[in-house]
Amino acid sequence: MRVKTILTVIAIVLLAACSGPTTAPPDTGPIPEASPPSSAVPDVEVVPSPTAWPTPASVPSPEALPAGAGVSEYPVTTIPLSGPVDSPDAEVSGLAWYGDYLIFLPQYPDFAPSEGDGTVYALDRADILAFLDGVTAGPLEPLPIPFSAPGLARSIDDFEGYEAIAFAGDRAFLTIEASPGREMRGYLVSGTMAPDLSGLALDTTTVAEIRPQAGVGNKSDEALLIAGDAVVTLYEVNGAALNPAPVAHLFDASLAPGGTVAFPNVEYRITDATALDEQGRFWATNFFFPLEREQLAETDPLVERYGEGASHLKSDVVERLVEFQYSEGDITLVDAPPIQIELLPLAARNWEGLVRLDGRGFLLVTDLFPGTILGFVPLPEER
Prior knowledge:
The chain is mainly β. The chain has one domain (3-19, 33-378): Tachylectin-2, Chain A (5 Propeller). Helices cover 9% and strands 37% of the residues. An eight-stranded mixed β-sheet has the order 3-4-5-6-10-9-8-7. Strands 1, 13, 16, 17, 18, 19 and 20 form a seven-stranded mixed β-sheet that branches. The longest helix has 12 residues, at 3-14. The protein is globular.
């Protein structure tokens, strides 16, 4: 059984016992441009079955819910899916725009029967907008895209799947997690998406290693973004106690290492990131599940500064989006409140994928915990 699956089973069984307040224990060349299918790439993750858990509430309009201590929380509008990606076995670990198509990256693309090395999936932006606008009722069925990476998984000791994906034109970049000898490793690989979506093929001849920054199991570089000619990977654990001086790793188009830039201390897991906007800003999913005891912080600077919404006040679970500013010298936090997501009463959602949606808000996706959920969260009016 895969490590993540084991942890998830334990987590679902014990979640109810973990609610309520808890005390923490004492330049070698630019990336080539290409033409995606519709338009340029926008700048701008006995046990009850997942269906037994509550479904995130859908709301008719993107307005914040009133919350405790004057802090707003935002509900998730669920976008129903069908087909293989709707199964928890998909373990979706990343989202990215490829032109007008939303690409779903399963942690193990071969989770469902297929030819070759598995499948990734795509949803047309127009279909997503039609559902959110009430034009269609769903469910939406993502298009399968053949995935090719011959021998790559077998060549990496204790391969634990793909964690993140980003595009620069037709060029795709993905991170991989592994645990050789129980010591975590991350890797960066690249590939090419066919403009007609007939396949995503990885280049298995070049694999760049990314050393972890903290001695925490099952954690690696879980997010990446494209910044000009650089590919930037973000480590999952950046809390002050576990990783006092976190950094983001830089690579060029050939996957040659390009040094690091400083990354701020942010408690709890960073699991995916949006593309940079015109101001060099991006958002990241920030998640905490109480059974990950090693990450339970004595204090959370974001909570101390901005407070907590009503459902977060009642739970140790954290589901939020945090905004960052990228520059060539470092990555810093934007001085503004995180977007706190209204929590479910009985299930924490392990958000593993994140993209912006046309200035309206964000699309997020979970892995197998508590099942595949594609959701929309509105952008606050003041942002």
